[in-house]
Amino acid sequence: MSLEFRHIAHAYTGRTGRVEALSDIAFTAPAGKITCLLGSSGSGKSTLLNLAAGLLPVQSGSISVGGNEMAAPGVNPPPEARPVGLVFQDGALFPHMTIAKNIAFGLPGGGSAGVIEQWLDRVGLAGLGERFPHELSGGQQQRASLARAMAPEPQVLLMDEPFASVDIVLRRRLRRDCRRLLREAGTTTILVTHDPEEALDIADHIAVMENGRIIQFGTPEDLHERPASASVGAIFGGAQIVSAMRDGDVLRTSMGVWPLSCIAGDLPDGAEFDLLVHAETLGCEADEAGLEVVDVHPLGVASRLLLQTPDGKEITVQSTATVKEGMRYRIVPQTRSVRAFLRR
Ligand code: ADP
Fold first, then answer.
1. pLDDT at 16
2. Residue that terminates a domain, selected from 235, 254, 288
3. Do 18 and 160 share a domain, yes or no?
4. Domain end: 190, 212, 235, which one?
5. What is residue 168's predicted lDDT score, i.e. its pLDDT?
6. Among 56, 73, 196, 304, who pairs with 297 as Cys (CB 3.0-4.6 Å)?
7. What stretch or stretches form a coiled coil here (predicted)?
8. pLDDT for the residue numbered 335
């Protein structure tokens, strides 16, 4: 069953006034796939998830599961009456219940011992059903919450930063196991994360959020190969954004004057845009009037240099030359290595 958001907007009104947290959100999380909501803190991810979960009432727009309206203004069934399962960052297991009882909680009639054993086994907790949550590690608790959320076989699973409290090595394992279980069960999943690596690793589709809007929705490959804006490109390719204006045959950029030939494609004269640049494609030449080297980080054959403009803007380049802090360089991008996005 797909999960469809139609024209969702949401505002919080509090002591300090009104905050527009979401505007005109419209996308479909495809059936049986994992869709990541990716964005920095405050971009609106949790608000959107909470609207689907029934933890916040929908103010405008609607949310449907498999074509059936689940929530809309005035239509606000509680979480337990929705065909959704929830997994939170901290697991949110019932502390006074054993792991087996936690898993049994959402099952009709409490589920059979066999079914609960099966779920413990699937999530790698075989033999630990009689423990209480505080007797498990953080990673094990997250496995238990995954089992609790998946055992009732919800049509949709909503996960809010489910791996955030687990250390990095375990996180990768947990992520892999989680992806396998969700694919096997064919559960339509929305997973909130602020970590691009996590989104690339686990998602079939990614909705990139910025300031309460979805700025791009696509497969990891789409976002990597065809970013809709410089900011999406910067999130995924480890690239940097440099503002620029075309002035005849040159680009006047915030990092100095660059040749027009560094961009692929054409741009109107006088246009302002953002350049997406990768450190490896930026050469540099010694120049007294250039940018100052403020940090040198050796990477084997080459070094990563941090250059600074007089007004404090920074850019990273890679160089095989012997460079010391305090030296000055002009940036020379490789021909056609830079992508340009017109300013909106
Ligand atoms: P994210 O999950 O991406 O970090 P949120 O959905 O939590 O983003 O927040 C989106 C915006 O709404 C932010 O500007 C945040 O400050 C604001 N916000 C979130 N919850 C509340 C609230 N209860 N009251 C007022 N503003 C809120």
1. 86
2. 235
3. yes
4. 235
5. 83
6. 304
7. none
8. 92
Residue 251 lies inside a defined structural domain of this protein: yes
Residue 214 has pLDDT above 80, yes or no: yes
**Does residue 23 fall inside a structural domain?**
yes
What is the distance in A from the centroid of ligand 1 to the CA of 20? 9
pLDDT in tens, 71-86: 999 999 999 899 999 9
Structure tokens at 103: 């898993």
The verdict on residue 177 lying in a domain is yes
Residues lining ligand 1, Cβ inside 6 A: 12, 14, 19, 21, 39, 41-47
User: Which residue's alpha carbon is nearest to atom 12 within ligand 1?
Assistant: 21
Distance of alpha carbon 259 from alpha carbon 243, whole angstroms: 14
CA–CA distance, 178 with 175 (Å, rounded to integer)? 5
Specify burial of residue 80 (Cβ count, 10 A radius: 0-12, 13-18, 19+).
exposed
- For residue 42, pLDDT beyond 90: yes
Q: With cut-offs at 50, 70 and 90, classify the pLDDT of residue 216.
A: very high
Tell me, yes or no, whether 88 lies in a domain. no
* Nearest CA owner, ligand 1 atom 1: 42
Q: Which atom of ligand 1 is nearest to the CA of 13?
A: 25
Contact 239, 231 (CB under 8 A): no
Domain count, the chain: 2
Instruction: Give the distance (Å) from ligand 1 centre to CA of residue 148.
Output: 27
| Ligand 1 centroid – CA 72 distance (Å) | 20
Atom of ligand 1 nearest to the CA of 41: 4
For ligand 1, atom 24, the nearest C-alpha belongs to: 12
* CATH code (residue 30): 3.40.50.300
Question: Do 192 and 321 share a domain, yes or no?
Answer: no
Q: Which atom of ligand 1 is nearest to the CA of 50?
A: 6
Express each pLDDT in 294-338 by its tens digit: 999 998 888 999 999 988 999 999 988 888 899 999 999 999 999
Q: Higher pLDDT residue, 165 or 299?
A: 299
Of residues 280, 191, 198, the one with CA closest to residue 235? 198
> How far is the centre of ligand 1, averaged over its atoms, from the C-alpha of 96 (Å)?
31
Q: Are residues 166 and 300 in the same domain?
A: no
Range of the domain at 283: 240-342
Amino acid identity at 274: D
When pLDDT is averaged across residues 97-126 and rounded to a whole number, the result is 89
Are residues 279 and 190 located together in one domain of the fold?
no
Q: How far is the CA of 46 from the centre of ligand 1 (A)?
A: 7
Whether residue 184 is found in the same domain as residue 245 = no
Start-to-end CA distance of the chain, whole Å, equals 36
Tracing tokens 């100095």 back to the chain, one arrives at 256
